[in-house]
């Protein structure tokens, strides 16, 4: 039976919410967060910016490549976006039978707390291992983003991974 996981990873940026939004919605910055182990390619042009500006839902054909392995199609759907506050994308692909990703931008007295909240079900039979690998990937992404804007070192890439029980999933 497939297990659904809930992952939350957050970082407290010591920068205005608009600056964190600009960083976390920039295609080149997003792609850089996956390196050096993976590459993630977003559509070129202004499609992402247009969708984040309120034109959602929009389908975004992305590609993930792990190491030198053949590319994996990542058909993302930007479900919703509220400028400088949040956006949500979803995908079903070869790695995840369920992938729901909420990006949240919360104003704090000294900047902005950025939160990745991801609900996912892996297609891998090694689900626990895959869930931990997913957690490590998001921690890595936060660590890379923290090199672009100042953060509180004690509140960078903080994560919680848990199994989503059936009653919660319903």
Topology summary:
Layout: E1 4-13, H1 17-24, H2 27-32, E2 38-41, H3 47-55, E3 58-66, E4 72-82, E5 86-91, E6 96-108, E7 111-122, H4 127-145, E8 158-163, H5 166-169
Antiparallel strand pairs: 1-7, 1-8, 2-3, 3-4, 4-5, 5-6, 6-7
Give me the count of strands. Answer: 8
Strand order of the largest sheet: 2-3-4-5-6-7-1-8
User: What's the CATH class, please?
Assistant: Alpha Beta
Low-pLDDT regions = none
**Secondary-structure element order, N to C:** EHHEHEEEEEHEH
| Share of residues in strands | 35-45%
CATH topology: Alpha-D-Glucose-1,6-Bisphosphate, Chain A, domain 4
Do you know the CATH architecture? 2-Layer Sandwich
Q: Percentage of helical residues?
A: 25-40%
Number of domains: 1
Mean pLDDT: 91
Q: What distance lies between the first and last C-alpha atoms, to the nearest angstrom?
A: 16 Å
Describe the structure.
It is built from five helices and eight strands, in the order βααβαβββββαβα. The protein has 170 residues and is of the alpha+beta class. It has a single domain, classed as Alpha-D-Glucose-1,6-Bisphosphate, Chain A, domain 4, CATH 3.30.530. A hairpin with a 2-residue loop joins strand 6 and strand 7 (111-122).
